[in-house]
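Need a sequence for this fold. Nothing fancy.
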């Protein structure tokens, strides 16, 4: 969120085989390589930036480099713990899907922007740069100012309290305009922030096509830029850059980041180390919201890698594919709603009583914004549409899901197709879910093209584990409760997910959930043909109309209430 940044975090590892990295760090701090690359990239962007000003920002940051080195040493016990953690990682082949790059850092690297942008895709203004330097001084000295975290000296001027005004430069074509608007909707549909196309507003964002994907952070006043260049034409990328524009920094820069992920500095390209800047507790207030590996503002596990290996390893290694998500997470929505005071629009006495830790919608307080995998007005139902409720027993049963659009070919589509399943068991039971197989060809950080999300946590609000690699076969999860939401999604060709599930023991009782929707209505019956139709995927196949599914297999496809 709108944090004051702490410093360019470099983990200097001098023991246990990390000496080569120490030499790389010296090269990084020499400034020579950075200067050459930055100037070359900036040469292309003279019409966009004040080049002298940007280089001045870089020079100011370089002045604090010596002080940083006194604080950035990885303790030996951390090194040992990291080695053990890496042993549990499954080696997954990362697929190259887009020739322009599959992630923001890959796209920006192709344009040489890693030496220009802060944290890979952010442009800092003078005030923000000064805040970085002040935070470095504070970290080294141990003295804290009285600045408030997040709601800092510039708040609320740095937020778009009257809505976000934007306009399209002539370089933006019709398709990219549509994609940007969809990215804006990812924020507006579940917050109180309005986005308006207005080229004459005093404060506005110019959307244009320039090298790379990048944005300024927060409302600066006047006109500010947001670039969606070649390769940035994805709804998730537009939503990510807009996340910066409304005040978000990257999740991995949270002050408490080290409790949740470990930076494997040996794998990081030295000239990308600023991507891992971290805040301090004095400059980062997350409104008491926990760290979520599955937010759209979190970079992928191999971001800025120099050798293809992970640069960030989550404390729960099964989350490694989840880093770099294409979806705005529930916790991110909660944080933005709090920062923009959207929650104040719904008085508790006149608002929906949300289940599963949802919260009243600021645009309609009688309904709820729900964690992923939950739906209905009060978050106590399976989300409507594709998918169904499955009843677990003590024996393994199989869930086979085929989702996508073969007719669209292998070019990534703008929109995801999603299916929501609930695996249920008697209250007090726990459920085991085992991955049998997943289609090859779409494995990438965050599973941005297709994947399956499995929610087995005690905290319903957390993003579940996302998987999208065939190497995940055999990975097993045990739930904390008797309900496990399963979400499959796809925006490229067609993918098949095969899971097995069964009851394995006692678990946490989940209250407030409506009765199993496949058995709640005694007048809801499936046709005798459903057993055969299930084998060809009637509930998930686009070949069958919604009305036909409701007529032939309402119970099977989850339409009964």
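Here you go.
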């Amino acid at each position: 969120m709108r944090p004051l940044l702490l410093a360019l975090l470099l983990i200097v590892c001098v023991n246990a085989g990390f000496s080569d990295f120490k030499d790389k760090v010296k090269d990084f701090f020499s400034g020579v390589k950075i200067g050459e690359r930055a100037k070359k990239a900036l040469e292309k962007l003279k019409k966009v930036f004040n080049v002298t000003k940007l280089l001045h920002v870089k020079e100011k940051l370089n002045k604090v480099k010596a002080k940083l080195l006194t604080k950035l040493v990885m303790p030996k016990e951390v090194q040992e713990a990291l080695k053990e953690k890496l042993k549990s990682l499954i080696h997954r082949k990362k697929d190259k899907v887009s020739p322009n790059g599959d992630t923001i850092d890959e796209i920006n690297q192709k344009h040489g922007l890693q030496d220009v942008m802060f944290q890979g895709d952010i442009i800092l203004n003078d005030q923000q740069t000064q805040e970085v330097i002040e935070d470095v001084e504070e970290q080294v000295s141990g003295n804290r100012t009285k600045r408030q975290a997040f709601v800092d000296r510039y708040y609320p001027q740095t937020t778009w309290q009257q809505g976000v005004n934007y306009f399209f430069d002539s370089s933006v074509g019709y398709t990219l305009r549509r994609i940007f608007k969809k990215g804006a909707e990812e924020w507006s549909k579940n917050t109180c922030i309005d986005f308006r196309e207005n080229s004459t507003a005093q404060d506005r964002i110019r959307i244009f096509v320039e090298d790379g994907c990048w944005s300024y952070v927060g409302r600066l006043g006047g006109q500010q830029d947001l670039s969606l260049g070649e390769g940035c034409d994805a709804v998730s990328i537009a939503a990510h850059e807009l996340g910066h524009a409304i005040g978000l920094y990257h999740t991995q820069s949270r002050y408490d980041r080290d409790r949740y992920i470990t930076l494997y500095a040996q794998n990081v390209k030295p000239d990308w180390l600023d991507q891992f800047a971290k805040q301090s507790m004095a400059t980062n207030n997350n409104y008491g919201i926990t760290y979520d590996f599955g937010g759209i503002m979190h970079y992928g596990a191999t971001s800025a890698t120099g050798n293809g290996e992970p640069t960030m390893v989550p404390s729960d290694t099964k989350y490694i594919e989840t880093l770099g998500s294409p979806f705005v997470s529930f916790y991110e929505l909660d944080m933005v709603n709090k920062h923009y005071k959207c929650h104040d629009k719904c008085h508790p006495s006149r608002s929906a009583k949300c289940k599963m830790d949802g919260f009243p919608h600021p645009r309609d307080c009688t309904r709820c914004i729900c964690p992923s995998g939950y739906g209905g007005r009060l978050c106590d139902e399976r989300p409507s549409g594709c998918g169904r409720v499955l009843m677990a027993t003590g024996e393994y049963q199989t869930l086979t899901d085929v989702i996508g659009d073969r007719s669209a070919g292998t070019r990534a589509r703008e929109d995801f197709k999603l299916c929501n399943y609930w695996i249920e068991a008697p209250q007090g039971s726990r459920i085991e879910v085992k991955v049998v197989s997943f289609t090859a060809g779409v494995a990438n950080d965050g599973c941005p093209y297709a994947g399956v999300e499995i929610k087995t946590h005690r905290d319903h609000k957390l993003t579940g584990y996302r998987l999208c690699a065939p190497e995940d076969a055999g990975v097993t999860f045990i739930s904390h409760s008797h309900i496990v939401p399963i979400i499959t999604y796809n925006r490229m060709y067609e993918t098949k997910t095969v899971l097995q599930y069964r009851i394995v023991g006692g678990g946490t009782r989940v209250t407030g959930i409506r009765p199993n929707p496949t058995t709640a209505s005694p007048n809801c019956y499936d046709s005798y043909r459903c057993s055969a139709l299930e084998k060809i995927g009637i509930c998930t196949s686009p070949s069958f109309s919604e009305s036909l599914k409701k007529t032939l297999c309402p119970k099977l496809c989850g339409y009964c209430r």
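For context: The two ends are 40 Å apart (CA to CA).
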